[in-house]
Structure prediction request, 123 residues.
Amino acid sequence: QLQLVESGGGLVQAGGSLRLSCVASGGTFSSYTMGWLRQAPGKEREFVATISRFSSTTYYADAVKGRSTISRDNAKNTVYLQMNNLEPEDTAVYYCAADRGVTQPNRRRYDYWGQGTQVTVSS
Prediction:
């Protein structure tokens, strides 16, 4: 059973940056496609970014493309989401997720989920 723990969320002013981290345990990290998704109050959970097992492929939601970078370090069992030029619309709970399947854009179904980390962007 893979376990995921996110960190790095917080309160930031518009235009600022945050780096989210997600540490995995209980499985072979490099066996999993990793993703970041987010859910704002009153809205459905939405795809943010995903990265393939050995970082060869990444996909981003249009809303964050050009402002965010997903990366992973398989030696540290960690996936990251660097977010720059944050906007109030980025306010949400951000979830890390893992799946054994193929890396796909806009993927919202994953086998394992973290508990989420809150990102709040003030205007």
Notes: The chain has a mean pLDDT of 97. The chain has no helices and eleven strands. The radius of gyration is 13 Å.
